[in-house]
Structure formats: C-alpha cells, structure tokens
Write a structure and sequence with these properties.
The complex is a heterodimer of chains A (411) and B (375). By secondary structure, chain A is α+β, with helices and mostly antiparallel strands. Chain A folds into three domains: 93 residues, Butyryl-Coa Dehydrogenase, subunit A, domain 1 (Orthogonal Bundle); 123 residues, Butyryl-CoA Dehydrogenase, subunit A, domain 2; 126 residues, Butyryl-CoA Dehydrogenase, subunit A, domain 3, CATH 1.20.140. Chain A has eleven helices and ten strands. Chain A has a four-stranded mixed beta sheet with strand order 1-4-5-8. Chain A is globular and about 75 Å long. The relative contact order of chain A is 0.11. Chain B is α+β, with helices and mostly antiparallel strands and 375 residues long. Chain B has three domains: 114 residues, Butyryl-Coa Dehydrogenase, subunit A, domain 1 (Orthogonal Bundle), CATH 1.10.540.10; 93 residues, Butyryl-CoA Dehydrogenase, subunit A, domain 2; 147 residues, Butyryl-CoA Dehydrogenase, subunit A, domain 3. In chain B, 51% of the residues lie in helices and 15% in strands. Chain B is built from eleven helices and ten strands. In chain B, a hairpin with a 2-residue loop joins β4 and β5. In chain B, α1 packs parallel to α4, α9 packs antiparallel against α10 and α9 runs antiparallel to α11. The relative contact order of chain B is 0.12. The chains are: A alpha+beta (411), B alpha+beta (375). Chains A and B meet through α8 and α11 of A and α1, α7, β10, α8 and α9 of B.
Chain lengths: 411, 375
C-alpha cells in the first residue's frame, strides 16, 4: 500500500508531524456506551456530547478546516485537510458529529455566502458548536430534486417559508439547516433559491422536527415541517433564482467530488463501528464454518472474497490516481464515481458477509451468538442509506453517462 | 520499500504516453488496421501475419523497445509505470507488433542476472523476441513446459507462443533434469518449425513452435526463479494493453450511442444503454488504477508485486470481457458484421482476457497469497 507521506510538500510534512504529535496525546478513549455506525445515526445526547467534545478539541488543535481561510475560522493552509484526515484515521479517532456541516454546508457557504455570514457561521460550524442539517429532499421530490415545492413567499426584507422536508439527518440536534426553496412557481430550476435557516431556535415557532425510524431500527433522520417561518433575506446564498447552481456545489461535495477535502476523522475500532470492509469480511471468513470447514477454505467463497478485495483496492487506487492528472482521461471522471463505488462496494461486501455467516446471518444486534455482535446485518441494511442518499446509484449513473460520456440527458 | 503517491509517473513518462498516443493516432488509424488485417473473412484462409513493418521500424528508432532494458545493458531502464503508459497507448491502437512480446522477454532476461546481459544488449539494439514456455494444455506455469534440453540441444514443442512470426528470437523455458533453464535462440535456427495457429484475434499472431535438436544458448540456470520474478510485469503490461483497448471500445461505443437514433432519440438517452456503458467506464477505471499500482510495485514494492499484478490482470480480464460484450451489443446489427471495427477489438480482448491467466485463475493465486493456501 502507498506510503502516504513520501510525497508531502514541506508544509504538509510539518503539518503531518504536528497532527501526529497532538494525536498521540489527545486521541480520546473509547466511550463506555455504544456509538452508532456513523454520525447520521446519533441517537442520544450522551453520544452527541462525546462526539462534539472530540470535534471541538480537534478543531482547536487545527485539524479541522485546515484549508479554510483564517478569517473564517480555518487554518489558512494549503492541501492539508487530507493529511489531517489520514493522521486522524491512523490514530483511530472517533468520527466527527457535524458531518453535514463539514461536508456540505461549509464548502457551500465558502463559495456562495456573503462575507458577514461566513465570518459569523463558519467558525462555529468547523468547531462543531453548531450542528447543521440539509433540507433538500421532500416527499414528492427525491431523484427529481429540482421539483421541490417548499415555498418562500416574499414579505418585505424577509421570506415566509411553508413546506415539508424529509430524510433530514441530524435535524433533531441541528442549530442550522441548508435549504433549497422555491421562490418562483413559474420556472423549475430557475425558480429555486438557496438559504441557511436557524432550526433549533425556531423549534415549535414555525419549525417541527419529527423523527423517522430506519429499517435498521435506528433513528437519526427526520421530517421537518415549516409553517409560516419568517427568514431574513440576508440568509440567502447566491442570487434569487440561483438556488440550483448553489445546490450543485453542495451536491458535488456531498459526493466527494468537490474542490475542498472534507474534514473527516474515524478509524476507532469498537464493536459498534463495524465497517463493511474486506478486513472484517476475511476475519469473519476465518471464524465461520461453511460445509463443515472454515469458510476461508471454500474455493467459491475465496473467489468472491477476492473479487471484493480487488474492487476495494481499486477504489483506493482511484483516489490516488485522481491526484495524477497525466493518468486521467477526463478531470472529473474518477471523482464522480467515488460515491457510487464506495456505497456499492460496501453493499456487496456486506451482502457477501451474510452469505459467509450462513445461518448465523439471521442473528441481529442483541443476540449473544451473532457473529460480530450482529453488526453485519446492520451494516448491510445501512449500506442502502448510502446507495440511495445524496443521489441514488441510478442518478449517479445518469450523471456519469451525461457529464463524462456526453450521452443524451434524461431531462 | 514504499510506493510514491504519484506512482512515480514522471513528466518524462507523461510525455512518452502522450507522444505514443499521438504517434498511433496519426500513423495508425483504425481503418488502416481493418484494411491490413481483415481483408479476408474466410476462416479457412492461409494464416497471414500482416503488420506495418515500416511503422514498427519508426517505433524502434524512437527507442520504445529499449525502454525496459536496464541501463547496464545499454537500455534506458525506465520504471514500469512509464512502460505501462506506452503499452496502454499501443493497446488503444491495437497495433499489431511484437512490442508486448519483446517487453515480456526483456523483463524475464533482466531477472536472469549477468548471464543474460548479451541477450539484453541485442534487444537494446532492436532485436525482437517472445517467450516460449507454455504447454499444449495452456498451463501458465512454466514448470509445465514440454520442451526439454539435453546436451545443449532443445527438443519438444512450445505452444501459444505470442507473435511468433514477427520476432527475431525466442526465449525458451526447457526442462533440464529436475531444473528449468532458459535458452536464447534465433527464430529461424535450424531445427525450429513455427506452425501458425488459426486464431480468432486478427491483430496478433500465435504459433506452436517445434524444436528438434536445436542448439541454443543457455542464458539462465534457474529459469523458474527468473520467470516468477518477471511474471508480475508480464501480467501488468498485458493488463495495460487491455485497458487501452477497452478505452477505445468505450469511446467508440459512446460515440455510436450519441449519434445512432431510434424512437426519435439518440440511443444513449435510454438507461438500458447509458447505465451499462457507465459500468464499462467504471470497470476500465478500476482496472487502470490497479495497473498503475501494480506497475509501481514492480519498482518500489517488489514484495507485493505479485499480489498487485494478480489484482490488475484479474480486473483487466473482466474489463476485457464486459467492454467487448457491450461494444458489440450496443452497436446492434452493424456491430455483428465483419465490416464494423468493433470486431477487431472484441477479438483482441477475448485473446487478452485468457492470455497469461484469466480472472478466476488470478484470483485463485491472489487468494493463496492473501488468505493462505488450502492444505
């Protein structure tokens, strides 16, 4: 595997050392309670506090928002977030709770926000003091996102919002929401505008958050109802009717195809952060019996495990090759595949793990005989969140076919 | 040893790849290939080996066959990633020539040590060569060779010898008592009979080569060791050829899907066409990333070169099959004809898919490395 630090710039090398030094003393201990698979399933205040404390301390040490300008609370560095992410992962840290803020709201604010708004919102976002959520999908608008109906009615310097957003992860903890609103009913894409709106301060004063329960049994996402919520025009990002263009920035970053590297920590191993990767799959195959022999000795399973190992390695190598322009046929071709491949490969690995587990795949969380504590069925079901959210795999294939292969547009 | 993040793919390598692409594009367009190799669809035709020797001569003068020859034998000793870049472009053009065969032979000779230096010098001077080590059942394990050496003379037959009628020399793996040695011999030496195979692939030739009391120079005592060391490069370079050819298949089919109209729309509008074409692209990109990782490992992480080469060739073999299948299917009726160029790449890719091991074969070997062998 590549040694990630052999080609660092001087700035990156110094910064990497700083990360290592700080992490060696400050990587948090594992909590005594269970953490969910990702920040999108945070359920309790206890989980939230532990994770917010971690993000704040990593931010204070300069490991979060490293590439953002100093005046917006960033580190003012160049291409250092990837270094921090690698080092945080290597140190087996927890993940950060403000995942939507960091991955989507922050780059959108940076590109499209007014100066005052950026100075006010970005530092508290990067530190995790303000949790963010995303109000894009609606009951009638999924893959066809530009058809959203939640309406903002002009009222002097303000807008009055009415409508219904759905699949809103973290809304129950969020201070702020990025939201795509209809400001003109006569045009589809051109009738959209993009705002940031306060959520927690407006709870039960125009905003209602109702939890939804996932097929895994976990909570974490919600529906959010707006009833005559007044929002100041100063909270608009981009021009009136430019909402779709602004949303494109959000979506590119959501799919790991944006300009800025998202601050992302992780790597902490505990029973509950069980990744659908081939390391865990092979571990399972060594323990499980198949036809009376260790599963790892079955020739068909060996072949299928290798298929997954090859694709998982290819995904890592795609990310590496993204940084070598001479080996790219098109500058966006690999980046636009990232989300699709990551979610589908994880799904295939988890699906194969259930087959390797055989009869024991029926045992879920809470059964003392379940392999890996029942995490595999949970991981498998959770992967559907990733192949559906942020543009389904089908939508991703449309985008790739249309943007990279220039095939005729679906719409 | 660790790999550099950019694969060690230098500016020089990028320049080489770019100039190779332009060279083939301007000198060897696909219509020229079709005219050269597909003039006669009769399967009972005499097996010809039509290729553009004048263009090959230009390629020799550009020094492209000595890129992989070590500097100690008067070559350029370029890293494998740079060579892979060239091979990818040759694959994109499906250029019939002994480039891949000569490179493969070069990597084996370079693994032989001092004793093969004279042979390497010949390659540096423009000699072409291919490997002769496969038996009649198509085993990719060189210890299964049917050629025997005794008192300095080769006897037996080597099968599935690539581009045998285009090369000057053979590098033969022969059983010598309980060991296996490598021998360097002119392709027209007395006692050698080259029998052309009637093969599907019109862009390459292949033969079985009979040896009767052929005198040949031994260049390596421990042939299996040298072949084992060079095998990652052999697989990786073929995989590089495959991804270049697959990219041609993708772009040609996408172009057709943009222009061919049915139901009043370009067929690429329909997701039954659009999505599988995207999947072809995804497979190519996975294979390509694995090819450059494997090539980089040859120079920077040799302890894992075999593992990564198995990944690259397994992925490339799957890509060859899928890209070929979709290229014909999405061209519809015209894609099923002799006159449509997709047949040339379809056939080349089916050849490459199995050559030096298909996907399942490589995955089985990868599993032995990663999971341990099954006792």
């Amino acid at each position: 595997m590549s040694e990630s630090d052999s080609k660092d710039t001087l700035e990156q090398a110094e910064f990497r050392q700083h990360c290592r030094d700080w992490l060696s003393d400050n990587t948090p201990a594992e909590p005594s309670f269970r953490l969910p698979i990702s920040a999108l399933e945070i359920m309790t205040e206890e989980q939230l506090k532990y994770l917010k404390d971690w993000q704040k301390s990593a931010y204070d040490a300069g490991l979060v928002g490293c590439d953002y300008p100093l005046e917006y609370g960033g580190g003012g560095r160049t291409n250092c977030q990837r270094i921090a992410n690698e080092e945080m992962h290597r140190a087996k840290t927890p993940y950060m709770p403000n995942i939507i803020g960091l991955g989507m709201a922050a780059p959108t604010l940076l590109h499209h926000g007014q100066e005052e708004l950026k100075k006010h919102l970005l530092p508290r976002l990067l530190s995790g003091e303000d949790i963010w959520c995303q109000g894009f999908s609606e009951p009638g608008s999924g893959s066809d996102l530009a058809s959203v109906q939640t309406f903002a009615q002009r009222d002097g310097d303000a807008w009055i919002i009415n409508g219904h957003k759905v699949w809103t992860s973290l809304a129950h903890f969020a201070e702020w929401m990025i939201i795509l609103l209809r400001t003109d009913k006569t045009e589809k894409h051109g009738g959209l505008s993009y705002f940031v709106v306060p959520i927690s301060s407006a709870l039960n004063k125009g905003v209602t958050v109702k939890p939804l329960i996932k097929m895994t049994g976990e909570t974490g996402f919600n529906e959010v109802l707006f009833e005559d919520l007044p929002v100041n025009d100063g909270l608009r990002l981009g021009g009136l009717g430019q909402g779709w263009q602004v949303a494109t920035t959000t979506l590119l970053h959501e799919r790991d195809a944006g300009e800025l590297v998202t601050p992302r920590s992780g790597g902490m191993k505990n029973a509950a952060s069980h990744n659908a990767d081939t390391t865990n799959l092979i571990d399972l195959a060594r323990k499980a019996q198949y036809n009376g022999k260790p599963a790892v000795q079955d020739p068909l399973l060996r072949d299928r495990i290798m298929q997954q190992l090859i694709r998982e390695t290819a995904l890592q190598e795609n990310q590496r090759r993204t940084r070598v322009p001479a080996l790219l046929e098109h500058p966006a071709r690999l980046q636009l595949q990232n989300k699709l491949l990551r979610s589908e490969i994880a799904q295939e690995i988890a699906a194969l793990a259930l087959e390797v587990a055989g009869a024991s795949a029926s045992l879920y969380l809470g059964d003392e005989n379940a392999p890996a504590g029942g995490q595999w069925p949970l991981a498998y079901m959770s992967t559907y969140g990733n192949t559906i959210a942020a543009g389904t795999s089908e939508v991703q294939r449309n985008i790739l076919g249309e943007r990279i292969l220039s095939l005729a547009k679906s719409k | 040893m660790a790999q550099p993040d950019d694969y060690g793919f230098s500016e020089e390598a990028a320049l080489l790849k770019d100039s190779a692409r332009k060279f083939f594009k301007s000198n060897f367009p696909t219509d020229k290939l079709q005219k050269m190799v597909a003039d006669n669809p009769d399967s009972a035709r005499v097996q010809e080996s039509n290729w553009d020797k004048a263009l090959w001569q230009q390629l020799l003068e550009l020094g492209w066959t000595l890129l992989a020859v070590p500097e100690s034998a008067d070559g350029l000793g370029l890293p494998a990633v740079a060579v892979a870049g060239l091979v990818e472009e040759a694959g994109r053009a499906a250029f019939p020539c002994p480039l891949l065969a000569t490179l493969n032979t070069t990597y084996v000779l370079a693994a032989c040590g001092e004793s093969a230096n004279a042979a390497l010098r010949e390659i540096a001077e423009g000699t072409t060569a291919t490997l002769a080590l496969t038996n009649r059942t198509g085993s990719w394990l060189p210890e299964d060779t049917e050629v025997v050496v005794s008192e300095g003379k080769l006897n037996g037959t080597a099968y599935f010898v690539q581009d045998a009628r285009k090369v000057d020399k053979f590098l033969v793996c022969a059983r010598k008592g309980t060991a296996h040695s490598l021998h360097w011999v002119a392709s027209d030496a007395p006692g050698i009979a080259v029998h052309a195979d009637a093969i599907v692939d019109l862009t390459r030739d292949q033969a079985h080569v009979g040896f009767v009391d052929v005198e040949a120079d031994e260049v390596c005592e421990d042939g299996l060791k040298a072949l084992e060391q060079a095998f990652p490069a052999i697989c990786t370079m073929l995989a590089a050829d495959v991804i270049g050819a697959a990219e041609w298949q993708l772009q040609t089919t996408a172009e057709y899907a943009r222009t061919r109209t049915q139901f009043d729309r370009p067929i690429g509008f329909f997701q039954a066409v659009k999505h599988p074409l995207v999947d072809v692209m995804i497979q190519i990109d996975e294979a390509k990333s694995l090819v450059y990782n494997a090539a980089c490992a040859i120079d920077h992480e040799p302890q894992r070169a075999a593992e990564y080469a198995h990944m690259a060739k397994a992925s490339a073999s799957e890509t060859a099959a899928f890209a070929s299948s979709r290229s014909v299917q999405f061209h519809g009726g015209i894609g099923y004809t002799w006159e449509c160029y997709v047949q040339l790449y379809f056939k080349r890719q089916k050849h490459s898919q199995m050559l030096w091991g298909d996907a399942a074969w490589h995955r089985a070997r990868l599993a032995d490395i990663v999971l341990g062998e099954v006792g």
